[in-house]
Amino acid sequence: MPESTDTRSFTSPLALAAPTPLTEHPAAVYLSSLGVGSRPAMRHALNTIARLLTNDSCDAMTLNWAALRYKHTAAVRAVLIENNSPAYANKMLCALRRVLKEALRLELMNAQDFARAVDIPNIKVTKQLRGRALSATEIAALIQVCFDDPTPTGYRDAALITILRGAGLRRSEVVNLDLSDFDENTSALTVRGGKGGKDRTVYLPDSGLEVLSDWFSIRGVTDGPLLCHVNKGGRVVLRRLTSQAVLFILEKRGQQVGVTDFSAHDFRRTFISELLDSGVDISTVQKLAGHVSPELTARYDRRDEQTKKRAVQKLIIPGSRRKPRQELELNF
User: Fold this and answer.
1) Helix pair 209-219, 152-167: axis angle to 10 deg
2) What is the phi-psi region of residue 196: left when phi exceeds 0, alpha when psi lies from -120 to 50, beta otherwise?
3) What is the pLDDT of residues 220-251, one digit of tens each?
């Protein structure tokens, strides 16, 4: 790095009057704290902000960042809203705040001016919900194509989809299940070391028990992974599936029946949405899903507009209808 910023002649009141050593330049100090890969993007962001404030007269290294006040940062935010996506604008505002924080630390800016200058809210980001809920028709098609496959692979894949659909497990949780984790008497599945390292118990619906029983008749009852490999010769190998293998299985079965644009996690979204739609309280659904909070569970809700419409039909507006207009006119 050079020892100081470039010297130029500026008319902008926000321009540095003289070169500043990089060790005392807030933008240079901030950029040096970043990883090498992040510096070009953030320097570009700071250059953009500097040009906005000075009508293209300054860049990140020639702007006097310590001279910025609330009126400047608020104006920057307003322009960024107009010209950038919320996510990218917030990234630029973060860089701006970080540079001003360095100006404060370098004693180039007092605490009051700093507090006011950075008192600008982030721009709200409206995110489209990821994933979707699978329809009953799609799930039926995916399971049926497995039923139509008479090989051990067909039995295993049917069991996989049954667990994903009936218990709402994550891919990593499904492949980590052992045969001993399933209690046939209670239909309970013990999930060990789920997200956050927590264990929990989930239950399969009765309609899925026969599918697992069929798979066990092929797999055998030897201890080991509940779902395992089937070699090219059709022989079951007690070797645990990987999360990636689950993706390949679902992709293959989806292509066979024309069900596309779905993931293993969409079974989880469907599981949560249908439980909520059937009236199960969100606290119970949270426990079954293994979420840390009801708020996180609510993010998985993919129920459509018809569900909301049906819900409000349960409300009753009290009172009787007003009299017909003709009857009111007669009373006058």
Assistant:
1) 140
2) left
3) 999 999 999 999 999 999 999 998 899 999 99
- Could you tell me what percent of the chain has a pLDDT over 70? 85
Can you tell me the distance from the alpha carbon of 60 to that of 45, in angstroms, rounded to the nearest whole number?
Answer: 9
What ranges do the domains of the chain cover? 22-117, 136-307
User: What b/e string do you get for 255-294 counting C-beta neighbours within 10 Å, with b at 16 or more?
Assistant: eebebeebbbebbbbbbbbbbbbeeeebeebbebbbbeee
Please answer whether residues 49 and 97 qualify as being in contact, where contact means their C-beta atoms are separated by less than 8 angstroms.
no
Backbone angles phi, psi at 139, to 5 degrees: -65, -40
Architecture of the domain made up of 136-307: Orthogonal Bundle (1.10)
Rounded CA-CA distance 58/45 in Å is 13
CA separation for the pair 308, 129 (Å, rounded): 17
Contact between 28 and 61 under an 8 Å Cβ cutoff? The reply is yes
For residues 191 and 290, the answer to whether their CB atoms sit within 8 Å is yes
In sequence order, the β-bridge partners of residue 229 are: 237
Task: Look at residues 31, 36, 49, 37 and name the one whose alpha carbon lies nearest to residue 96.
Answer: 49
Q: In which residue are the tokens 């996690």 written?
A: 265
| d(C-alpha 8, C-alpha 12), whole Å | 11
pTM, full prediction = 0.56
CA-closest candidate to residue 267, choices 162, 118, 129: 162
Mean pLDDT calculated for residue range 263-275: 88
